[in-house]
Amino acid sequence: MKEPTQPQDPNDLVLQSHVLGGLPIINAVTDRLGLPALLAAALPEDDARVKVSTAAAIRVVVANLVLGRAPLYGLGEWAARYDPGLLGLTAEEVSVLNDDRVGRALEALFDADRASLLTGVVLRAISTFGIETRQLHNDSTSISVHGVYPDAVGTLRGGKPTPVITWGHSKDHRPDLKQLVWILTVSADGAVPLAYRLADGNTVDDPTHVPTWDGLVGLLGRTDFLYVADSKLCSRAAMGHLDSRGGRFVTVMPRTRAEDGAFRKHLQTHTPVWTEAARRPGAHIGDPEQVYSTTPAPLPRTMPPRGPPRVLCVVVVTTSAYGTGLG
Predict the structure, then answer these.
(1) Residue burial 146-164, b: 16+ Cβ < 10 Å; e: rest
(2) How confident is the model at residue 168 (pLDDT cuts 50, 70, 90)?
(3) Could you tell me the pLDDT band of residue 327, with boundaries at 50, 70 and 90?
(4) How many angstroms separate the CA atoms of 101 and 56, rounded?
(5) According to the model, what pLDDT value does residue 18 have?
(6) Residue 193: strand pairing partners
(7) Which end of the chain has less neighbouring CB within 10 Å, N or C?
(8) Is the pLDDT of residue 78 over 90?
(9) How far apart are CA 264 and CA 257, in angstroms?
(10) Mean local confidence (pLDDT), 259-281
(11) Burial annotation 95-114 (CB, 10 A radius, 16+ → b, else e)
(12) How do residues 111-122 score in pLDDT, each as one tens digit?
């Protein structure tokens, strides 16, 4: 007969408190994406002396970016607050997690086949979560950095070019700082990031759309999605490239285009017929509704410069809040 267990002396008990936070939700998403397996397949095999695997360290970085955004030197202290099991670590592994280990893991990720890794994650997200990809939106921004970065001059690493950290047009209004250019494409369905490119800090937006669109075609395997971008897409080279390959796009026409001047001249002698296209609530309580109206431009534009001419639709859009523009 089993002897009844004796209750522990309360003086021998130790209370341990750990934060759960949003980790269960993050883990549910990353597990459905198959991220642990994708990381393990993309990253090199670890040395037997490594106490925290590279894939595990990257998972901690991902969780931190979503929840805390602690600096690299404080990542170990940040992780110590959470239940180690939810971070995919043991208590011992958390105790040896530091900026040196995470830095080496990030270097291994940089040298890995990140393009194939990202493609795997994106395609898994599209299929698992049913993300609609009929309409994609693209934009770019600058990422300012502090420091000299004398070695960030585009040298090859592992046979792959690296971006140049240098001065360029700062969208942060910090022309005194060097920068990189971040180009992101998201789905209209939930603004889910589907593709990105990191470019030299002095890259202008105009030539980025062709390789971005080509990459999206390779990712999705089709050209019939609607590509939405700002006025930098409105160039003969970019629009001609997309149009000649069966692409569909919407962009904003800058005032430097001849069509803009022609329409303004047309307004002096004609009264266009406006059709309400959308109505949105005002930005603040008590503000009037924002009404969007459209009318076809009188002078359609033919494209592209080579091959049979095609007519691209130019639509004039006006809003009750901001005035008129061409797209």
Answers:
(1) eeeeeebeeeeeeeeebbb
(2) very high
(3) low
(4) 11
(5) 82
(6) 186
(7) N
(8) yes
(9) 12
(10) 89
(11) eebeeebbeebeebbeebee
(12) 999 999 999 999
Distance CA 315, CA 264 (A): 13
| Contact predicate 64/89, CB 8 Å | no
> Of 152, 156, 187, which is closest to residue 166 (Cα–Cα)?
152
Amino acid identity, position 36: P
User: How many angstroms separate the CA atoms of 196 and 182, rounded?
Assistant: 7
* Sign of CA pseudo-dihedral 179, 183, 188, 192: negative
Q: What phi, psi does 240 have (nearest 5°)?
A: -65, -40
Dist. CA 227–CA 248, nearest whole Å: 6
Six-digit token pair at 115?
A: 């393009």
Using one digit for the tens of pLDDT, what is the confidence trace for 95-148? 999 999 999 999 999 999 999 999 999 999 999 999 999 999 999 999 999 999
Rounded distance between C-alpha atoms, residue 64 and residue 57, angstroms? 11
Taking the C-alpha atoms of residue 142 and residue 182, their distance in angstroms, rounded to an integer, is: 6
pLDDT digits (tens, 9 = 90+) for 306-317: 555 566 788 888
pLDDT of 297 = 84
Angle subtended by helix axes 54-67 and 23-33, to nearest 10: 130
Q: Which whole number is the average pLDDT over 183-210?
A: 96
Return the H-helix or E-strand segment holding 268: none
**Token digits of residue 116:** 């194939």
Q: If 0-12 CB within 10 Å is exposed, 13-18 middle and 19+ buried, where does residue 320 land?
A: middle
> Rounded to two decimals, what is the model's pTM?
0.86
Q: Which residues of 239-262 are buried (b: 16+ CB within 10 A; e: fewer)?
A: bbbbbeeebebebebeeebebbeb
